[in-house]
Amino acid sequence: MNFQQVGEYLVATRITGPTHNILQLQFASYPDSPPSIQALPGVGPNQAALNSQEVLRQVVAGVAAANMEFKSGYRVGKVRFVENDSRPESVYKELAAFIVRRVVHG
Length: 106
Fold this sequence. Notes:
Blueprint: E1 2-6, E2 9-16, E3 19-27, E4 36-40, H1 52-70, E5 76-82, H2 91-105
């Protein structure tokens, strides 16, 4: 996995052979603000779109798991992903936890 910051987003990418995923994440500025999600246009061969609500659920779960591990308090603000990235959506839980890990440990 790779990590970088692009503008206001923390970005994790995962490329393993024929599969690929990108997660762009902003943490929430206010504790009670609901997270939002945006599916970016697909690239490459046309394959079925990922379920955006499931991607969001997985990102929230990944951040929560990392918060427990590192005793941190990050909250999901904005999520962006490419709509036809590789399945399964559960990959986004790993990517979200990876972002928190990188923020905590530098």
